[in-house]
Amino acid sequence: MITRLRFAPLFLLLLVPVSAFAAEPRLLVYTRNYTPDGKGYVHANIAHSVEALKALGAEMGCVVDSSDDPAVFTPENLKKYKVLIFSNSNNEAFTDDAQREAFKGFIKAGGGYVGIHSATGSERTWPYYWSIAGGKFRRHPKLQKFTVRVKDAESPVAAGVPSTFTWEDECYYHEFLSPDIHPVLVTDPTKIDDGKIKADPGGLLGDSVPLAWTLKADGGRTFYLALGHKPEHYDDPLYRTILRNGIRWAMGESKP
Question: What's the helix, strand, coil split of the chain in %, to 5?
Answer without folding.
Answer: 35, 25, 40
